[in-house]
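Fold this: Copine C-terminal domain-containing protein
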Amino acid sequence: MVAVGRVCQGHDSDKMFPAFGFGARIPPDYKVSHDFAINFNEDNPECAGIQGVVEAYQNCLPKLQLYGPTNIAPIIQKVAKSASEETHTMEATQYFILLILTDGVITDMADTREAIVHASHLPMSVIIVGVGNADFSDMQMLDGDDGILRSPKGEPVLRDIVQFVPFRNFKHASPAALAKSVLAEVPNQVVDYYNGKGIKPKCMSEYESSRTLGP
């Protein structure tokens, strides 16, 4: 998370990252949740930098009970909602990268496929890092490298937005090698999205001006 996060952090203007958890019983009532802020602040789930994400994760672990099943569709849908709002600007201002770390096999595969097909129309990419020795063969299907991913209804993705990387393949590799593999497809995914929409990137002077004059 740190290796990949540091690379992403360099391309984020405010270095604030919303961080969410799934598959746990959370306080105060300890109901199972597949979509909760790891700082337990649903109104402001952002953490300051990747170090802030790590600290929030370490702080929340003793307060919750990890619990199955492993459902990731709710998290994808949450980020897709934010990405959908960005499409109304018709500018290349924000592109969303969802990094999912999981040690379990996805149990809501149909909903996840549906969510990914929907998200493929939006300015976002999904990176899934499988941790541990579970059977991640279903994850490879989501990646789309071996064929076009389709929703349960048969609708194909508009573009490939998922990258799956099994962490066990990088146990003895450098953090830089892991980050390179995890982020390998993102640049082309960003370009493909904006080219498909006919949206040209702002030059740096225009971007800085819009930030200065904006509300």
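Residues 125 and 186 are 7 Å apart (CA to CA). The longest strand covers residues 96-102.
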